[in-house]
Structures are given as C-alpha cells and as structure tokens.
Amino acid sequence: MRKFYQHSLTILLVISLLTFSGCASIVGKSSYRLPITSNPNGANITITDMKGRTVHTGVTPTSARLRSGAGFFKKASYTVTFELDGYDTRTVPVHFDLNAWYFGNVVFGGFVGFLVIDPLTGAMWKLDTKYVNETLQPKVANATEPTLELLNYNTLPDSMKPYLVEIR
Known about the structure:
This protein is α+β, with helices and mostly antiparallel strands. Helix content is 21%, strand content 33%.
C-alpha cells in the first residue's frame, strides 16, 4: 500500500510540473529592467509600447521595468524618446527576441509549457537591448529656412536705408 502512495505522489508531482510550468518561465522572466542614460544627463524620457501607450516616463539616468510579452505569442517592442531643451529629440527602439530557454519545454515543460505557459506569460521572449545610452545632439539652426527679422529704422545702417520701400 505504501508503494502505491509513493507512485501516486510521484505521478502527481510529475503531472503538476508538466502542467504548471514552462521552461522559460522557470529559468527566464517575464519583465526586464532596462537602464537608460543620456549624454548630457537630465533628458526627459518617455517609453511607449507598440500601441503608442506611454508605459514609463522619467529623467535620465533612470531605469524602467518592461514586460517582454504583448499578448499570446506576441513579443513586446517599445520606443524610448529623449527630449532636452536645446537638443534634437531622439527616438530609440527597444526589441525582444526569442528566449532560447523556450525550447527547453521539449524536455522540462512539455507541450503545456511550450504552447500555453511561456507564450501567455511572455517568458518566451528576452530583452535584446541590454541598456539604452543616447548621445543627444545640440539643435542647429536650419540655414535654408527663410527668417523674418524686425529692425528699428533708427538703428539701421545708412547703407541699407536707400533700399527701404514705404508702405502705406
């Protein structure tokens, strides 16, 4: 009778492991911390997901926790936008790739881990971008755009006064 209980317990444990686990879920994770820096520091950052929703805002240097999955069998992707007065706005993509541990389900997680657990939790994806470090470029005035400059007649050089046209 004791042998029966030992076998039953072993079978129950194996079934539980196969049912409630996925290999990438065991070894990997469903969200990742992404360090974000800029040169110069103090840039405002906005992270948006693939649907355009803001998922994080902050000021560099900072870090954000990003989910790896975007739905069943869908990997997440994000964009980090850097904004700082006097500098050009920069946008950097953040990508996720297939986690190699996902294929460990063939041995450890079984079909339930392969087809349900890891795709549902997002653990089948891993962060491809380890960190974001962006060097911001100072804004440069565009010389090709026409500009309008107002001048005072009294401070105008005498050499330019003959070219003036009176407007009534």
